[in-house]
């Protein structure tokens, strides 16, 4: 009888003990392509968020509770991303830091909106991601925003009178940058002398570049990620093109895609980015020191943005004083956050209002050039 009473008491107590353990932890989900064709972006990005949450836990967590950062691999695939997100929801996350690339991010955002899940994408630049719902935010600037800034760069910094564009027709990212670049360049009085396209996976760009070279543009915009940028710039120089090359934040890492003997192809090129390793601010330098110590390499812009996204989520939950979704979302909307990638507030569409850093490539290094407001 005593054993029966004891077992009964334990059966009643155990759920309470389990619930208490749950309450000692705040679960935040993370998504990224940790394997697959775009894993280099996912690993770089999630390294930043992992570092941030490790630091946060060492410094007392959030609201006095440890953070359980549950990171899942979505392989760069939209369907995999949705499946992974649903697993995170089943794990009782209160917020999401992710996804990384735009298409999976949009797929997740549309479902997260139905769940009213507080969601910050560090690096999803496609314009309509935050239109999925009022719960969806981003730390990076958008594709169209970069297009406008690059047009201003061509006009004001490079004094360009003529420009050409070579665009990846299979990429919303590439097309989004190119479209607003062309629109803004025309407004600024720049002549668009050529526009050529290519498909995902193409390796030979000489036919398109030959047509562009015949127009002899002052500037060539290459709005794509660094692997394609490395191939296009190399082939353009082989064809004798003398144009100034410019690109968006996807160029971050272009020097790694080239042998040092080929750095001449990108020498003097400019690209927009989210921060600079040359920034002497204490916040940036502390981040660089911590990241280099943990991973043994320089952090990319993806790393810095994800690091900021993690701390921004922490800031919002603490200001909300709660893990209730509505309260976190409201706190995010009213953010005035100073991160590694600069000071950030949000507009009415939950896109960041922030400055853009312009980097110049010199001897394979990305040198701080200017900031465009």
Overview of this protein structure:
The protein is α/β, with parallel strands linked by helices and 373 residues long. It has two domains: 8-141 and 281-354, 3-Layer(aba) Sandwich (Rossmann fold); 144-273, Response regulator (Rossmann fold), CATH 3.40.50.2300. Helix content is 44%, strand content 20%. The strands form three sheets. Strands 7-6-8-9-10-14-15 form a seven-stranded mixed beta sheet, sandwiched between helices. The longest helix has 22 residues, at 2-23. The chain is globular. The model is unreliable at 1-21 (pLDDT under 50).
Net shape: globular
CATH topology description of the largest domain = Rossmann fold
Residues in β-strands, percent: 15-25%
The CATH architecture classification of the largest domain is 3-Layer(aba) Sandwich
Radius of gyration: 23 Å
As residue ranges, the low-confidence spans are 1-21
Highlighted features:
373 residues; alpha/beta; Rossmann fold; 7-stranded mixed β-sheet; 5-stranded parallel β-sheet; 11 helices; disordered N terminus; ABC transporter substrate-binding protein; BCAA_transport; amino-acid transport; signal; Leu_Ile_Val-bd
């Amino acid at each position: 009888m005593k054993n029966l009473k004891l077992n009964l008491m334990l059966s009643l107590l155990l759920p309470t003990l389990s619930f208490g353990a749950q309450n000692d932890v705040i679960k935040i989900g993370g998504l990224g392509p940790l394997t697959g064709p775009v894993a280099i972006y996912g690993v770089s990005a999630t390294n930043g968020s992992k570092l941030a949450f490790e630091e946060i836990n060492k410094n007392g967590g959030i609201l006095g509770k440890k953070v359980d950062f549950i990171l899942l691999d979505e392989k760069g695939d939209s369907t995999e991303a949705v499946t992974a997100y649903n697993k995170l929801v089943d794990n009782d996350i209160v917020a999401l830091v992710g996804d990384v690339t735009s298409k999976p991010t949009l797929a997740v955002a549309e479902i997260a909106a139905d769940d009213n899940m507080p969601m910050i994408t560090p690096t999803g630049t496609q314009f309509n991601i935050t239109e999925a719902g009022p719960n969806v935010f981003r730390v990076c600037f958008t594709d169209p925003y970069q297009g406008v800034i690059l047009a201003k760069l061509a006009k004001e910094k490079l004094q360009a009178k003529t420009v050409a564009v070579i665009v990846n027709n299979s990429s919303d990212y590439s097309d989004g940058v190119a479209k607003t670049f062309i629109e803004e360049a025309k407004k600024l009085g720049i002549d668009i002398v050529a526009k050529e396209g290519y498909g995902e996976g193409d390796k030979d760009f000489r036919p398109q570049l030959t047509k562009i070279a015949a127009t002899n543009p002052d500037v060539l915009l290459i709005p794509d990620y660094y692997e394609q940028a490395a191939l296009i710039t190399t082939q353009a120089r082989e064809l004798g093109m003398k144009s100034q090359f410019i690109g968006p934040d996807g160029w971050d890492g272009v020097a790694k895609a080239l042998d040092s003997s080929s750095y001449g192809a990108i020498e003097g090129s400019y690209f927009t980015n989210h921060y600079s390793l040359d920034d002497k601010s204490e916040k940036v330098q502390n981040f660089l020191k911590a990241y280099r110590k943990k991973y043994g390499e320089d952090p990319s812009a993806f790393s810095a943005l994800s690091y900021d996204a993690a701390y921004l989520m922490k800031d919002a939950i603490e200001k909300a004083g709660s893990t209730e979704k509505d309260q976190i979302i409201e706190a995010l909307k009213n953010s005035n956050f100073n991160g590694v990638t600069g000071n950030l507030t949000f507009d009415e569409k939950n896109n960041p209002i922030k400055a853009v850093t312009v980097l110049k490539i010199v001897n394979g290094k990305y040198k701080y050039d200017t900031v465009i407001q």
